[in-house]
Amino acid sequence: MTHTPPFRLPSGGRLIDRAFQIPFRFDGRTLRGLQGDSLASALLSNGQMMMGRSFKYHRPRGPVASGAEEPNALFGLGQGGRFEPNQRATTTSLVPGMALKSQNCWPSLDADIGAVNNWLSPMLPAGFYYKTFIHPRPFWKHVFEPIIRRSAGLGAAPTEADPDRYEQAYAHADLVVVGGGIAGLGAAVEAARNGQTVVVLEQDPVWGGRSPVDHPEGQARIDALLADLRAMPNVTMRRNTMATGLYDHGYLLAREALADHDPQQGIPRQRLWRIRAGHVIVATGALERPLSFACNDVPGVMLASAARDFIANYGVAPGQRIVVVTNNDDAYRTALVAHDAGLDVAAVIDARNVADGDLPQAVRARNIAVLTGSAIAKVKGGRHVEAVVLCDQAGDGKPTGAIDCDVVAMSGGWSPVVHLWSHCGGKLLWDKDQAMFRPNSERPPLGGDGRGNVTAVGAANGELRCAGNLERREAATRPVWCMPQGAPYKLRSKMWLDYQNDVKVSDVELAAREGYVSVEHTKRYTTLGMATDQGKVSNINGLAVLSKALDQPIPATGTTTFRPPYTPLTLATIAADARADTFQPLRKTPMHSWHEHHGASWEPVGQWRRAYCYCAAGEDRHAAVNREIKAVRQGVGTLDASTLGKIVVKGPDAGRFLDMMYTNMMSTLPVGRCRYGLMCNENGFLMDDGVVVRLTEDTWLCHTTTGGADHIHGHMEDWLQCEWWDWQVYTANVTEQWAQIAVAGPQARQLLQRLSGSFDLSQDALPFMSWGEGEIADIPARVYRISFSGELSYEIAVPANRGLELWEKLHEVGRDLGITPYGTEAMHVMRAEKGFIMIGDETDGTIIPQDLGLGWAISKKKTDYIGKRAQSRSHMTDRSRWQLVGLESLDGRVIPDGACAVDEGVNANGQRKTQGRVTSSYHSPTLGHPIAMALVRHGPERMGQVLEFPLPSGEVLKGRIVDPVFYDKEGSRLNG
Amino acid sequence: MAEALATIRRVEGMGMITLRGALEQIGPVVSDVTGIALPECRKITGAGDRQLGWMSPDELLCVMPVADLPAILAALQDGLTDRHALVLDMSDARVIYDIIGAHAEDVLAKLSPADLGAVGSDDLRRSRAAQTAAAFWRIESGFRVIGFRSTADYLGALLHNAAMPGSQLAPR
Amino acid sequence: MLALTCPCCGITAEETEFHPGGEAHLKRVGPEGADDEFEAYLFARKNPKGAHIERWRHSYGCGKWFHVARDTATLRVFGAYTTQSYGPPEDIVNAIRQSYPDWTFDRNAAE
Asked: Which of A892, A890, A897 is nearest to A948 (CA)?
C-alpha cells in the first residue's frame, strides 16, 4: 500500500503546540512543522519518510529510532560557518528557518547515482576494501585511494570558521544523576532528602524518559517527582545536557545545549560541563533493538518505541496501517497507542509461541490480530514499506501469507544503556532471561577511595519494569537474533544490523568464517558499530550473530569497548575558549605595545611574543635585521630582554646549592660580579644557560633562557624539597617583576651616561661581568655589564611597571646617536658571529657542555654537580662525539640550518653516513659572508677541512671547518 | 540585551610582597609590621586593601596599597635580617582583577577547576584560570583574582568572555 | 582525571592542578657511583601494576612536591605524604596492605 496523508493526526502529541507553525527548509523546499517538533517528526508530518541514504549501498532510509541512537536520519544543518554534518533529526529540535540538507546522495535524495552500489552489493561484502584494492600495486596511489577518499565520510565538513561561542564550566556535587526518567528522578529525590548536593542531567528537552508515553499515569508520577526536586535547594536540574563520558575518580563530562541552531539568542551555543561527582547514578534507560528480518531497512520499518513516540509525543502518524513485530510484550504498547490514535493496526506478529500477558490481552480486546509463533519473511517495497510477507518463526521463511501495511514497528527486546557504567571500568553480565547485558553491581567503577562510585538504576540496570506499580504483568522476552530462525542466505544477506554502515547478518557470518573470532576484530573488519551512532542499535544483535556463527554463548563473545563520547561532540565545545585570542596565554613584556607600534614582526618563544625585528616602511625582514645589526655594531641598539628568566636564590646554603645546580663554581663568585653558568640535568645534558649574579653575601640572581624560567625554577625547587630539604635555601621566580633592556653597541655607555647622573658606569667602576645598582632616568635600576652581542653592553633591569618609561627615555635621548631597537634575529646573528651557543640551537637535549667547547665552564674543583656523574659515562667521554666548530661556506651561499655533513659509505638503510650537522646558520652583515656553527665528529681537530652538505635539491654545498668565533676573537669590544 | 554576569575590573595601585621563611619564625615579625594576624593554612587575613595570605607552608603574600609598600618592605627586611627568610617586592609581577556582581561565582566557575563551594569567605585558593595560574579570594559581592603580569590580557579576555550576558550557569 | 589531595596545603584538586614526577624515593647516585648503580638510578623504574609510590607537584597551588601511594590498576589512592621522608608512613603502608597483604616498601628495588 502507499503512504498517504493525513500525516499529522487530528489530535494528540504531548510535546507539540499546534498554535505555532514553524517554517523550515529541506533540500530547497519550504516545509512547516510545529513548535515542539523534532526534525524527524516535522519531516514525517510532511509525509517525508525517506531521510537519508546509507553509507555504502546508498539505500533509501527512513528514521529507525526516535532518539539518540538514530543511525539513518542524519542531515547537514545550517549554512556557512554554522553548517554541521550528521545532525540527528530525531534529537534536534525544530527552530524557525532551519535549513536541512540531505547527505550521501547525488544529485538528490530521490535520484541518487550512488545507489548503483546497491545493485553491486553482492560484490561489496565485508572486508571488500582489504581484498580488492591490493593489486596491481601502483593502482592504490593513483586510482583506488583517490576514489575511496572522495567517497569516504558521511556528510561534508564545514569550510568556514564557526562563528558561535562555546564555553566550559566546572561543577562539584555529592551525586550526579544521569537520566531524568522515572528511575533517575526517583533516585535524585531520595539522595536529596538525605542532604546530598545533587545534579540531575537529562539529554532531552523534556523530563520523564519513557514513562509519560508508556504509562497512563506516567506523566503524573514524573510531575510529582519534579515538584519534589524543584522544591529542594540542594538539587540542580539540567535539561538538554548529555553526559558524554565518565572518567577516573568520578569525573563526568556533559554537554549542555544552550542555543543550538538558534544563534539569535546571543548566548554561547553549547557548554561543556566538567563535573566532579562524589557518586554517579546511571539512570540512562534502555534502547530498543531491531529484529533481523529481510529488508528490515526499508523506510517505514522502525522501532516499536519510535513509532509510538511519533504518535504520542508529536501527533504524527508514521503510517496509516501498522504491523507490529516483536519478541516481547512491550511492543504491544505501540499497537495500543496506534489503535487509540485512530490508526489501523493490521496485526501483531509475535515470534513467541505464547503471548498472554496483560498487554497482548489488551490488544486482543481491541480486536487486533495477534499472530504468535510468526515472523516476517521479508518486507516488500523499495522507497517505502508496502507489505510484509509472513512465515513461521521456527521455519526457513516459507511464506504463509502477506499483509499490506505502510509501517512496520519492530521490537527485538531492550538493551540497557551501559555506556557510562562501562567507560570507567564497570563490568557487565549477561542476563539470559532478559537477553541483555546489564551492569554487574558487584564490579562497579571504582573511585579514589577504592569503593564503587557508580550505581546503575532502572532500565539502565536491566530493570525494564522500573516504573513499579505503573507496570502491567509482562511475559518474558524471547531472544530472536534471526527472523525466521532458519532463514537461508538469500534472506540473511538482506537483514541489516548496522543501518548506517550497511553491515548485514551475512557480513558478520562471513567474518566469522574467515577467522575473525574476536568481537573487536569483527567490528573493524565489517565496520559493524563504527558509524556515527557507534552501534547503539546494532551492537548486541551483531555480537549475537557472531556468537551463533562461532557456536559459543553470547557472554563468551562479549561486547566491544564502550568509549566516550556517548553521542558525537562538536569539536568547538571541546576547545571552547581555547581559540583565537584566548587559544593559549600569550605572554607580553612591559614594552609589548611599543614594539607593536614600531613595526615589530613577532617571534613566538614559548608563550612569549618577542620582536623578531622592526621593519621600517618598505623594508623586508632580512633588510631590517641587517640594519639592526649594523646599528648595534656601529652605534647603539636596545633589545627587550624582559623575557629572560630571573630566579632569586637566597640563604646560608645558597652557594652550596648553586654549585650543585651549575657546572660552574658559583659559591666563589664575589658580590658585585656576574658569571656565565651552565645547567645540566642528571643525564648530563645541557638544559639551560644564563648569567648568574651575586647580589649579596647570601643572595644570587640566576638568569635563565626565555622559555626556561618556570622549568628551571621547578627544577631547583625539586632538588630543594626532595633531596636536600635540610639545606637552608629559598628561591623565588621574579621574572615578571623586572623589565630588562639590553643597551648594546660602542656608544652604549655614552648614551647611558646621559641618564645615569651620579651612577658611575665607567669601565673602572663597572667593568665587564660586574653589576651595580643606581638610578637610570630617575628609575631605580640594576645594571649588569654582560654581553650576548659581543659589543659593549649593559643590561638594565627596572621594576616592570617602569620598563616602558625607561625604554622610551632611552630612545628619546639617544636619537642623535641613531639608537635602534633590535629584535631576536639580530641578537641571534650577533651571538653566532661571536660563537656563543644558544640553548635549543646548539643543544637538543642530547648535547653535553663538553661537546660545545664549554669545558672552561665546568669546575674541576667541585666533587659533584647535577650531571657530573653522567658526563663520565663511556658514551659521554667518547672522543668521537660531534664537537662544535664554525663553518665557512665556500661559494658564499648560506648552508641551511640542519643540513648534514656526509661521510664516506652508507648505513644499513642505504643512506649516506653523516659526520656532522649545522646547528646555526646566518648571513653575517658584519662580515659580509655566511657564517655557521656545526657539530662535527673530531671537529676541533680538523680545522681547514672541507665538508659536503647535500641538499634535498641534489645540490651539494661545501663548508670549511673554522673557529666558531668569527668576530672580535680577543673580545676587546665587549670589554671596552 | 541582558547584562554581563559580573563587572570585570582591573585593579591598579596595589603592592605585593612575597615572603618566604618558616612561618613560625617569620610570622610574628610579619604580623607585627603589617598589623594583620598571621593566616592559618589556606587562609587570608586582614581586610580591604591590606591583607595577608597563606600561599604555601613557607610562603606568605602581603597585599597593600602601593604607597604603603616601601615602608612595609623596609620594615620587613629589617625585622627579618637575622632570620633565614626571603622578602621580595613582587608588585609589578602581578595583575589583579575584581569580579563583582550577582553571578561572579559563575564567571570563575567557567575558568577554574577549584570547588568554589568549598572556598570560604576567608580562604585563599591558588588554582588556575584556563591555562594560566591564578589565585583568588572572596571580596564583597565577588572575587579578587591575581594572575601574572605577562598574561594579564589573556586573563582579562577570559574573564570578559566568561561574563558574557545571558550565560549564567543556573539551569534555563 | 584523578583527584588528589595535597598533604602540604590540604587542597583537593583535579589532576590538571598538579604535575607528575614519576617514581618516588629514588636514591641519588653521585660521582662516586659505579656504572651499574648509576644506570639503575637514571633509567630503571618499577612501573608496577598495583601499589606504587609516585611524585607529584602541586604546581598550580602551593608549589610543593609530595608523594602519592596509588594503585596503578584501580587508581585507588592510598594516601599522600611529604617528600621529606625516606618511605611511606605506617598508615599508608597499612592501607596498601589491605589491598596487597604482602606489599613491602622497597626503596632500592630499582638498583
From this structure: A890
**How does pLDDT run across B128-157, given as a tens digit for each residue?**
999 999 999 999 999 999 999 999 999 999
Using the 8-state DSSP alphabet, how is residue A294 labeled?
A: B
Neighbours of chain C (3+ CB pairs under 8 A): A, B
Residue in A251, A721, A864 closest to C31 by CB: A864
Residues in a beta bridge with A237: A200
Give the residue numbers spanning the domain of B157.
7-11+93-162
Range 737-776 of A in CB contact (< 8 A) with B: 737-738
Task: Please give the domain boundaries of chain A with CATH numbers for all domains.
Answer: 168-283+416-470 (3.50.50.60), 832-859+869-975 (2.40.30.110)
CATH code of C69's domain:
3.30.2270.10
CB A915 within 8 A of CB A903: yes
Residue C110 confidence (pLDDT): 39
Say yes or no for a CB contact (<8 Å) between C63 and A449.
no
What is the CATH number for B121? 3.30.1360.120
Same-domain status, B54 and B87: yes
Q: B47 — contact with chain C (CB < 8 Å)?
A: no
- A 765-824 → B contacts, CB under 8 A: 799-801
B50 domain-assigned: yes
Rounded-to-integer distance, Cα B60 and Cα B71, Å: 18
In DSSP notation, A262-276 reads: -GGG-S-SEEEEEEE
C62 touches chain A (CB under 8 A): no
pLDDT grade, residue A153 (50/70/90)? low
Closest CB from B91, B152, B158 relative to A577: B158
**Pair (B18, B87) in one structural domain:** yes
Diameter of chain B measured on Cα atoms: 60
Structural domain contains residue B170: no
The residue of C5, C11, C58 whose CB has the most chain B CBs within 10 angstroms, and thus the best one to mutate to test that interface, is C11
Is there a contact between C9 and B115 if contact means CB atoms under 8 Å apart?
Answer: no
Q: Does the residue B70 lie in any domain?
A: yes
Q: How far apart are CA A719 and CA C89, in angstroms?
A: 21
- The total domain count for chain C is 1
C contact residues 57-76, partner B, Cβ 8 Å cutoff: 60-64
In a domain, B40, yes or no: yes
Query: For residue C55, is it within any domain?
Result: yes
Q: Which of residues 866-905 of A touch B (CB under 8 A)?
A: none
Q: What is the ipTM of this complex?
A: 0.98
Instruction: Report A:450-509 residues touching C (Cβ under 8 A).
Output: 450
**pLDDT per position as a tens digit, A114-149:** 777 777 777 777 777 677 776 777 777 777 777 766
Q: Distance from A176 to chain C by nearest Cα, in Å?
A: 17
Yes or no, beta carbons of C62 and B113 under 8 Å apart: no
Considering its fold, how many domains does chain B have in total? 2
Residue C88 lies in a domain: yes
Burial A561-595 (b: 16+ CB within 10 A, else e): ebebbbbbbbebbeebbeeeebeebbbbbbbbebb
Range of the domain at C10: 3-99
pLDDT at C108 over 70: no
Which residues neighbour B74 within 8 Å (Cβ) at sequence distance 6 or greater? Answer: none
Query: Which of B68, B91, B114 is the last residue in one of the domains?
Result: B91
Are A249 and C75 inside 8 Å of each other by CB?
yes
Distance between the two ends of chain A, CA-based, in angstroms?
A: 102
